[in-house]
Amino acid sequence: MSELQQTYSRTQQILNSFRSGSDSLQVIYQPSAISPYDRVQTLRFYGFITSLRMRVDINSMNEADIPNLDADTTRTERLTALRDMEWRSPRKQISFFMRTARLDWQPIFDVSLLNRLPYYQVNLLPYLTDNISFDTSNDFMLGAQITDVSYGKLSGEDNVLIFGSVREEITTLPTDSKEISFAQPFSWEINTDSRVILPANPNRQQVTLVNRSLTEEVFINYGSSSQINRGITLMRGGGSYEINMSNLYRGAISAVSSGNASLTGIEAV
Hints:
Layout: E1 6-19, E2 26-29, E3 46-57, H1 75-88, E4 92-99, E5 106-113, E6 120-123, H2 125-128, E7 134-136, E8 141-147, E9 159-172, E10 183-190, E11 195-198, E12 206-211, E13 218-222, E14 232-234, E15 240-243, E16 253-257, E17 261-268
Antiparallel strand pairs: 1-9, 2-8, 3-6, 3-7, 3-9, 4-5, 4-8, 10-17, 11-16, 12-15, 12-17, 13-14, 13-16
């Protein structure tokens, strides 16, 4: 068994569009789950946002006036003129928020949206960090929302596009868990009477369940009894659930359905 840590990485793309009617907060980036089959999804990648830009195309208001500055204008006067153009001209606004598992959405920064024909781009990464990337934890979320600052929200052909890329990584540590050596396939007929489909197994390492019914949902529970419309729902037409090392459970598993349904699966040890 190797004693070295192993790091797995991949690139995740960011792409979100705001148009007329896009009033609610959108999640711009959230680290991906390790396994799409893990309903709990407690394990996620951590990410490094390496690029984050915004394309602004606002045409529902008059074009912003470019300051007319003389050659001898001082630096302070130039900065004041640019500030007034950004924040005192007719404008839209987009606000950015962060949240973690511990703290709900918190405002981070705002960006003024002006009419600069034909369009323009804004580098958003410096709003987050002075470094070449912004490091995120696995419970991090970045969101954005169009906010009304007395000039209305997006309308007509207005379009704000946020795009970028994230390098996601996960580090695995040495483990004493043995590899799967055997898997037993199963098939069950489930109806309105709750039944135990798998008894407790102290050697269990994985279970995968798939609902083969095209008309009925199947409801799964940890324990010897299940109830209709409660517990873990396997949707009709292929709904699935997996128990693995990220959410390991070795007790009894029961199932019930509101009609006749076919359930298949494997248990691995």
